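Fold this sequence, please.
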Amino acid sequence: MQLIASLNNMYTSIDRSITWWLPFCFMALLAGAGGATAGGRGKGGGGGERREVYVVYMGAVPPRTSPNLLLESHLRLVGGVLTRGQPAESVVVQQYKHGFSGFAARLSKAEAAALRRMPGVVSVFADQVYQLHTTRSWDFLQQTAVKIDSTRRSSSLSAVKPATSSAAAAASSSSPTAGDTIIGLLDSGVWPESPSFDDAGFGPVPAKWKGVCMAGDDFNSSNCNRKLIGARYYDLGEVKWSRSARRSGNSPRDEAGHGTHTSSTAAGNAVTGASYYGLAPGTAKGGSAASRVAMYRVCSEEGCPGSAILAGFDDAIGDGVDVLSVSLGASPYFRQDFSEDSIAIGSFHAVAKGVMVVCSAGNAGPDAATVVNAAPWILTVAATTIDRVFESDVLLGGNNSAVKGGAINFSRLDKSPKYPLITGESAKSSSVSDTNSASQCEPGTLDASKIKGKIVLCHHSAGSSNKMEKVDELKSAGAVGSILVNDLERAVATAYLEFPVTEITSAAAADIHKYIASTSEPVGTIAPTITVTEYKPAPVVAYFSSRGPSAQTANILKPDVSAPGVNILASWIPTTTLPVGESKASQFNLVSGTSMACPHVAGSAATVKAWNPTWSPAAIRSAIMTTATQLNNDKAPMTTDSGSQATPYDYGAGQVNPTGSLDPGLVYELGEDDYLQFLCNYGYNASQIKLIATSLPGGFSCAGNASKDLISDLNYPSIAVAGLGKAGSRTVSRVVTNVGAQEEASYTVAVAAPAGLDVKVAPCKLEFTKSVKKLAFQVTFSGENAAAKGDLSGSITWSDGKHTVRSPFVVSI
C-alpha cells in the first residue's frame, strides 16, 4: 500500500488570502498529479541523464557515531555511484545527522537505482513537493469546555495542580515550566516584527536550546529574541521562487503569511486590540503563550520540498524542541509508503526522541478516505468552526426581510436597497448558448452592458470557476456588487475587501429569485460585514476537513482530534492590498484550513507537556484525545456542516479540550517498540526495521502471524477494526496507566454501542493501587446482529467519578 506523494491542486476557492498559494493552505496537495519533484532539471550526468533531487534515507543514526563521521560516510556512499572525478559535494543538497541518517542529492535515475542496492539504505525516492494545508478560537475552546464539562472537570483539576485563577488560565500556560517549552514549526517562515513574538517579560532562553538564528535576506540574528528563539531556512530548489515573491527565499522571513499565522496561533503572545480591519475584534493569543517559538522555513509560496522537510525535522530534533507543528501534507490520491514519505520518516524519529509531532489532516473533505499524515506516531488534526461568523446581509426592495449572507466585504453601497438586481442567466451574452454557465457567471458568458451598475446574482458550485475570477470580471464589467449562491463553502468567509460581495444558501437564493420575479424593477443592496459571536451551533466539522478512514491504516482511527480551523484570526505579514480608506496594513488576518487547526492542538500539547515534563508524546496525545468533547454549544452532538451527525471519521475523538487534557486520569502509553511492532504488522520485515530503529530489543523479530488485522492491538487511545464481517468477532487489547493524583483509584466502564454491534469489555472494573499503575483490558466486537454492512461507531469510557476517559471506536462490518 502506498502513502501520499503528491499534493493535488484543488479547492482553490476557499479564502482569497490563501488560495493564491496553495490548494491545501486551503487545500494543499503536491504540485503535479504524477508527483512533482523539487529538484527539477539539472545538469546532465551519468551518461547525460536528467538529474533530479532524490532523498536517500538510511534509518536511525548508528550508536556512538559523530555527526562529522556520519557526513563523511554519506559523501563516500554517493561518491561511489558518481562519474569518476565528480565530487560528491557538488550533488549533495541536504544531509541528515541528528535524528536520523541520510541525505538528499541531485542524481540520475541510474545513480539512484545503484544507491537503492547499497547496504544500510532503507529507501531512495524522488524529492516530492508537499504543500501547506491552508480569534476568538482559543476563547471559544475554553468557553465550550467550561459550559459543557464544568462540573466534570473542575474538582479533578484543583486536586492535581496548584491553584490558579481559573482552569482556563491554567490551560493558557500558567505552568511553572511553560516558559521552558519550545514549539517548533515546519512552515513558510516567520515575520519577527509581529507583536505576537515580542519577548517582553520572558526570561532567558532555556538552557536545553541548541538551535540558531540564521541570518539571511532581510533577516539577521537580532530578529530572534527570548520569545522567537530560533529560525532556520533551507534550500528549496526550484520551488523557491514565485512570481509574486517580494524577496529572495534565502531567509527565515515569511513571504506568504502562513508560518506567521500558524506560529502565532500555537504560541503567540496575547495582543489586545487585534482585528482584521475592525472585524473579529478582541485579544489574539496563542494556545501556549508562554512557550518559545522556533521556525524552520521549509516552504515557499510554491510548495515544500520533502528534502527540506526532512532537514527541518532533523534540525528540530537536534535543537531541542518539545513539540513540532506541521501544517502541510501530501495528496490523498497519490500515496507513497511510510519509508518514502518525508513527514512520516521525520516524525517517526522525532517521536522516538521524545518530540511531540502534530500534523494537519488535509483539506480534501468532505470525501471519505482523504485524511493524510495518518502514521500512528503523529497526532492528526481535523478542522471545525467556532462560534463566530461574518455576516453580510442582502436588503431587498419592498417590504422584504433581509436575506442573511456571509463574507468579508467593506461595502460602501447605500444602506437603502436602490441598486438594480439581475441574475447571471438574465445577463447572458447573446454569443453564449449555455444558460447554466451564465447563471454561474462563468468568465466570458455575461453581457457587460446588462450588468453595469447592478448587483449580479450568481450561482457557484465546486466544479465552476474560481470565485475570485468571477468577481474580478464582474467588477471589471462595472457591476456594483455580487451575491454568490454557495452552499458548500459559505461557512468560510472569503475576503472581497471593498467590492460588495456576499454568499448565501440556495434556500436564501430562492427568496431572492422569487422577489426578482415579482417586480419589473428589482432592487437591493449589500450590507458591509459585521462580526457575530455566540453563533450556534458550533463547533461544526468544516466541509473541507479531510475525512477517515485512513486508506493506509484502516485499523488506526484517523483523524485523531479536531480543533478550530475556520476564519481564524492570527498574525500576518504586511500586505499592499488594503480596503478603501485604510492607510496601514492589518497585522492580523482571517484564514481557514486544517493548517489553522493543527497549531491549536500543538499549543495544547505544549501546555500538557509543561504541566507534565516527563510525559511521552503518546501520553500527551492520549490526554488530548480521551478528554475531547463531542458536544456543541447547544449541548447537542456535533454535526458536519451539511447537518449530519459527525462521526469519528469526521472529528476523531472530538473537539480538543485544553483544560480537560491537563488532568486525563488515565493515559494510553506507546513507545518505539510498539511502533516497530506496528511496522511488522504493516508489512515491513525485521531487516528493514533494524535499519529504521535506533535500538532494538534483544532477539527482535517480526512475528510469523504479523498482519494488518493485528494493528488494531496497538495501544492507541481509539480503536478501529476493519473488515470484521457479520459472522466474525474480534478481540483487541489495551493497557492504561494511572496518572491521576489519586494512586488508589477505581474505574468502571461504560459502553456506547450502535444497534447491531455487540461490544463486551473485560474486566469491567479497573482497580489501581500504589504498586499497580498499569492495567490491561480487552474489548470484543461481534457483528453477528448487524443489519447491514457499513461502519459502526461508538465509545468506551472509563470513569472514577472525577475523570472521564473516553475512547471512540469504529468497526467496519
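Residues 137-160 form the longest helix (24 residues). The chain has 17 helices and 39 strands.
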